[in-house]
Each structure stands twice: as structure tokens, then as C-alpha cells.
Specification:
The protein is mainly α. Helix content is 62%, strand content 6%. A 5-stranded mixed beta sheet has the order 2-1-3-5-4, with helices on one face.
């Protein structure tokens, strides 16, 4: 009797523990959002596009080498129209998406029959640094996650046989259309949903449902084709994008050992991105994913298609150099992998006796201290702290016409000088000299008079050292301020 009572308490713990994990993940996201770090180069360039354009113009390809779906931009434009062009307004959509996603993932676990195993993948999602960061960043990656989860939840809750044809068609015409214009990788998830419903039709022999599905798929394909050829294609094939992401594409038909190794490394990187790149976690995740596929193929092939087809389409796109496998870009697929890890882990736990079901909690606690953003409760997340150095330059009384802005630092400088609500406090820094990527620093130094300053954002240390060496032929370094992702040097002209 006592053993039964302890087991009942143990099961109650598992019932309520996910809520504690969700609350903790929500607190982490809100804390990092309220830290209000500076916008970095890509965020600043997105902000400039939103500031400079009306809603209609945001349908056009973006400037400053930026790529984002129109509905994502519209939501942010709406928030900035309400409360101004601050970091908080620009990042509010990402925060809301992160919080909503925390609530959605356990709903999917429940629909997929994941019980005790829920805690482990949920801890990875709630406390993983990559999920925390992009829940407070002006990029589309966390909204991509939210839309992925919403689509999967809608599919699992609406069996094609249990919904009236009219309602089913209208629901997916609206949901699919919004997803295509709100999230670039949503097309991969919609492919999985299409395969899910086709598998249901074939399995149940409900072929009368096919015309409705064909209509839905046709509308989706037509919209995505228009979106791809009018907006995405010029961006996808830009030399800048292809070069930047070159290491994160796959070889479609690898011919050498080096190419095979590259593909294997990238695939392990994708799996490791869910919560730890060390060997044991990779092996553990890989075992769980394989076990999940085997189980689903035997018990529910429609769900196997739903969860595997987005991953297969993503890898095919990466092999065709149409989509990068860079961690932040594939954030949308990480919850799918976590679902598979949860399914596989649940099936393993089903084979074990009672108290072994605590394994996910133990592993999850280990992950909290190894792979997560726990330290961000007391340490500020910093990426490119431009605002700190602009305030420093004001304290040092450097005027704008004596300031030189490195080309990588220019987007954030322009945001804080021209767009940010605090721009009126930084009027003394207006009119800085914007440097180009091919600036000759020895020639530049010859023209620098009196007391001047240079501000950098992320740049290779070797390049900065070479540039500083060239400048110091003619100027003395008298002060500097180095913060995360940003640095300032102040010079005095040498006496000649």
C-alpha cells in the first residue's frame, strides 16, 4: 500500500512538473527581453526597412541584405506604430511567439501520447540558449517556431474524416495561406501536413476527400510559387547569401569522402542544435529519433509522414542550395526533432519499470546546467552593444564629424542616431563618416585631424589589428572602450 502511495505521488509530480518548466522558461524569456540589449547589425537593418517603408512597400524585397516574410514585417510595423521604434517594440512579436510556443509544445506532446517523457524535451526547449535568444530578437526565427507548432497542432486536432468538407477546406486555405506569407519555412511543414492527410485518405480509402485536398494544395502551391519567384528567388540566389551560408548546405550527390564527412557533420550539427553537441547527447537524441520513426512507421504511418516530411524537404532544399542549415535558420524544425525525441524516449520508458520513469527529469536537470541559458537570470545577454559605446563617445565629447564608423557598425549606428526614440539625446554624434569595406586605412589616417574616434562592430581581430596599425602611423591611441561585439578607439593626431 505504501509503495502504491509513493508511486501515485511520483505520477502526480510528473503531471505538474511540465507546468513548472513552462513557467521557468517564460521567466527566462521575459528577463532576457527586459535586459534590452542593443540591436545588432541584422536587427538594425530590419528596423531600418520597417521604419522607411509603409505596409505596402514591405511586400517588396528588403534592402540592406535582409530577408523576412511580409506578415512578419507587418506585425512588427503594427507594434512600432503603437509604441514607437524602440528595441522593446521591435522584439515584442518574438517574445510573444516564444511564450506561445512554450504553451503549444506540451499540447503536441499530449496529442502524440507522450507522458513521462515530456519533461526532457520540454526542458531543452524552455532553457536552451538558442530558444531564449531568438525569443527576444528582431528576426523571424521564433515566429517560425510558433507557426510550425500551430500548423502541427491544427493538423493533429483535425482528422480529415471528422471535419466537414467545407470547414476543412476553408480552415486549411486560410491557415496555409497565412503561414506561407508569415513564415518562409512554413512550406516544409505544409508539405508534411499534405502528406499526412493524403496518407489518411489512402489508409481509410476515403477518396472522395481528394478533390478538396487537391484544391487546398493547388492554392498553397500557387501562392508559394508567386512568393518564391517575386520575392525569394533573387534573395536565395544572391552571391552574398550563397557565400555566407556555403558551409551550411549539403551535397546532393556526395562523391568524395570529404563531401560525405561534410554531410555527416552538418546532420549531426542539426540534431545537436536541439540541446547539446557533446557526443552522449547526440547519440541519445539519435537513438530516440530512430526509435520514434520505427514506432510510428509500425503504429501510425500518417504521423510518421507528418513529422518526417518537413525534415526531408528541408534537407533536400539544403542539398539544392535553396535553404541553409545554419542553427538559427532551422530553428523552426527543432521542435519537430524534440517531438520525435519525446516519442522515442516515451517508448523506451514504456519498457522500463516505475521509478525508471524519472530518467527524463535526471537527464533534463543535467541539461539545465550544461546547455541552457540559466545564467541569463543574472548575466545580461549581449550581442553587439552599440548603445553603450555611443553613450561612451558622448561622455568623451567626441563630435559626429570626428567619428569614423566601420562599415559593419554602420547599421546599428544609423538606427540609434536616426530611428531610436533616444536619438534626440545623441544629436552630437550625427554626421559621422561611414567607412566602406575597401577603405584604405593608411590613407584615411593621413586625413584625420585633432581628436578623433573610430567605432567597430564584429570584425575579424586580425583585420582590426592591421587597420589600427595603419592608423597609428599618424595618430596616437589615447583611449578605448571594449564591450561585447563593439569597440571604440580614440586618437590624437601625432605632432608632425
Amino acid at each position: 500500500m505504501q509503495h502504491t502511495s509513493r508511486l501515485a505521488s511520483f505520477n502526480r509530480l510528473f503531471k505538474y512538473l511540465p507546468y513548472a518548466v513552462i513557467l521557468f522558461g517564460a521567466i527566462l524569456r521575459i528577463v532576457v527581453y527586459l535586459q534590452n540589449r542593443s540591436l545588432f547589425i541584422d536587427e538594425a537593418n530590419i528596423a531600418r526597412n520597417i521604419y522607411e517603408r509603409n505596409y505596402l512597400a514591405l511586400l517588396l524585397p528588403l534592402r540592406y541584405s535582409q530577408y523576412a516574410p511580409p506578415l512578419f514585417l507587418w506585425v512588427i510595423k503594427f507594434f512600432t506604430n503603437l509604441s514607437g521604434y524602440s528595441e522593446f517594440a521591435f522584439r515584442l512579436y518574438a517574445l510573444l511567439a516564444g511564450l506561445v510556443s512554450l504553451w503549444l509544445l506540451p499540447q503536441l506532446f499530449k496529442l502524440l501520447g507522450i507522458k513521462n517523457a515530456t519533461v526532457y524535451p520540454l526542458i531543452l526547449f524552455a532553457t536552451g540558449l538558442v530558444f531564449i535568444r531568438y525569443s527576444s530578437e528582431l528576426k523571424q526565427y521564433m515566429p517560425d517556431v510558433m507557426i510550425t507548432l500551430l500548423l502541427l497542432l491544427t493538423a493533429l486536432k483535425n482528422n480529415i474524416s471528422n471535419v466537414s468538407p467545407g470547414k476543412f477546406i476553408l480552415m486549411w486555405l486560410v491557415a496555409g495561406s497565412l503561414a506561407i506569407w508569415a513564415s518562409m519555412p512554413a512550406v516544409f511543414v505544409l508539405a508534411g501536413i499534405g502528406g499526412y492527410y493524403i496518407t489518411q485518405v489512402i489508409k481509410s480509402k476515403a477518396y472522395a476527400k481528394l478533390p478538396g485536398l487537391i484544391l487546398i494544395f493547388g492554392v498553397w502551391i500557387a501562392q508559394f510559387a508567386f512568393y518564391y519567384f517575386s520575392i525569394l528567388k533573387p534573395q536565395v540566389h544572391s552571391s552574398y547569401l550563397q557565400t555566407f551560408h556555403d558551409d551550411y548546405f549539403l551535397f546532393l550527390t556526395p562523391e568524395t569522402i570529404k563531401q560525405w564527412r561534410h554531410n555527416a557533420r552538418i546532420l549531426l550539427y542539426v540534431i545537436g542544435s536541439t540541446g547539446g553537441n557533446w557526443a552522449l547527447s547526440l547519440i541519445f537524441h539519435l537513438v530516440c529519433i530512430i526509435w520514434a520513426f520505427v514506432y510510428l512507421l509500425r503504429r501510425d504511418i500518417a504521423k510518421a509522414v507528418l513529422l518526417s516530411l518537413p525534415i526531408c524537404c528541408l534537407l533536400l532544399a539544403a542539398s539544392l542550395r535553396q535553404f541553409s542549415l545554419l542553427e538559427r535558420v532551422i530553428l523552426f524544425v527543432m521542435p519537430v526533432l524534440l517531438l520525435l525525441i519525446g516519442i522515442g524516449l516515451q517508448r523506451i520508458l514504456d519498457l522500463l519499470p516505475g521509478y525508471f520513469k524519472a530518467i527524463p527529469v535526471v537527464i533534463g536537470c543535467i541539461c539545465i546546467f550544461n546547455f541552457n541559458a540559466l545564467h541569463l537570470l543574472w548575466d545580461k545577454l549581449e550581442v553587439e552593444e552599440m548603445a553603450q559605446n555611443l553613450d561612451y563617445l558622448q561622455q568623451k565629447q567626441i563630435p559626429g564629424d570626428a567619428l569614423y564608423v566601420h562599415h559593419i557598425a554602420e547599421p546599428a549606428y544609423l538606427y540609434y542616431i536616426n530611428i531610436h526614440p533616444g536619438k534626440f539625446q545623441r544629436t552630437s554624434l550625427i554626421g559621422a563618416h561611414a567607412l566602406k569595406w575597401d577603405t584604405k586605412y593608411d590613407s584615411l589616417a593621413k586625413t584625420m585631424k585633432g581628436r578623433t574616434a573610430m567605432i567597430y562592430s564584429y570584425e575579424e581581430p586580425e583585420k582590426i589589428a592591421a587597420q589600427q596599425l595603419a592608423i597609428r602611423q599618424y595618430c596616437n591611441l589615447v583611449d578605448s572602450n571594449l564591450v561585447k561585439g563593439n569597440r571604440v578607439y580614440i586618437y590624437e593626431r601625432k605632432n608632425e
